[in-house]
Amino acid sequence: MTPDSFNYLAGLVKQRSGIVLTADKGYMLETRLAPMLRRDGIAGLDALALRLRAPGSTALAAEVVEALTTNESSFFRDGKPFEHLKKLLPKLAAARPAGHVIRIWSAACSSGQEAYSIAMTVAELGTAMAGKRVEILGTDLSREMLDRAQQAVFTQFEVQRGLPVQMLVRHFIQDGTRWRVKPELRAMARFQPFNLLDDPRSLGRFDIVFCRNVLIYFDAPTKSRVLATLAGLLPPDGVVYLGGAETVLGLTERLVPAAGERGVYEPARPAARSA
Ligand SMILES: C[S@@+](CC[C@H](N)C(=O)[O-])C[C@H]1O[C@@H](n2cnc3c(N)ncnc32)[C@H](O)[C@@H]1O
């Protein structure tokens, strides 16, 4: 692939998803895009770049971006955020008026493990939720992942990663070699496409946002923009969870780390922030 083709493909991916492809990602491009090239009879990445430059290539561009997303996920990933959520939810439920629906956003939900881990945490809390209803919205750029999340069916390998066996038995039904999320848990989550580069205000406000293991793929200005936007969706006692390798430090003053917690961020009090 010529440097010109690489720069064109990297520019297109960044513009459409925020994902930054550094010069050392040439090999990744080759391997991830190979099945698509074979299927469409495209000779190579230079030919693909040429096709993408032509008018009417929007669907192809979306496919390229989709192939370059990293969709790795697991149930109760990193553990700690879900332990924090378990303590936070009863407090939020008690602080909200009757009839309030607690809204939780899994903002790069991949195949749905994060959203269903949230749903299981809520279900396990039972009466501690003070009768408050919880609505979980899972969104992602990848249509393929959203389809999987919507199907709510996971392989033996997937349920073995991070999901305690008691929870597997309580919340899933075995279906051959696969495991299907029980309907009552499935009903707590809704999934729809959403690009984190877009304005999320159409999704409404949220009490809690999980935005984990996606900002790592973005450059600093994009991370700053996304984080500031997320802060704007939260009430003063709301929370944003980020991945273990992600932070708000140096990116926004609208969110601050929760005291003594890793990966948990709260809206800054207005007096505490200068911008
Ligand atoms: C590594 S997965 C993280 C899944 C889950 N949050 C977790 O921590 O297990 C990253 C997800 O971010 C999605 N993604 C990448 N860029 C995005 C964007 N601009 N808008 C929405 N989702 C995006 C990818 O499709 C992928 O499913």
UniProtKB/TrEMBL annotation:
What UniProt keywords apply to this chain's record, in alphabetical order?
A: Methyltransferase, S-adenosyl-L-methionine, Transferase
Catalytic activity, reaction form? L-glutamyl-[protein] + S-adenosyl-L-methionine = [protein]-L-glutamate 5-O-methyl ester + S-adenosyl-L-homocysteine
Q: InterPro entries, per this entry?
A: Bact_Chemotaxis_MeTrfase, CheR_C, CheR_MeTrfase, CheR_N, CheR_N_sf, SAM-dependent_MTases_sf
Which positions fall inside the CheR-type methyltransferase domain? 1-266
Q: What class of enzyme is it?
A: transferase
Protein's name according to its UniProt entry: protein-glutamate O-methyltransferase
Record Gene3D superfamilies: Chemotaxis receptor methyltransferase CheR, N-terminal domain, Vaccinia Virus protein VP39
Q: Which SUPFAM superfamilies match?
A: Chemotaxis receptor methyltransferase CheR, N-terminal domain (SSF47757), S-adenosyl-L-methionine-dependent methyltransferases (SSF53335)
Q: Cite the CDD domains for this sequence.
A: AdoMet_MTases
Catalytic activity, EC: 2.1.1.80
Tell me if S-adenosyl-L-methionine is a UniProt keyword of this record: yes
Carries keyword S-adenosyl-L-methionine? yes
One Pfam family this chain carries?
CheR_N
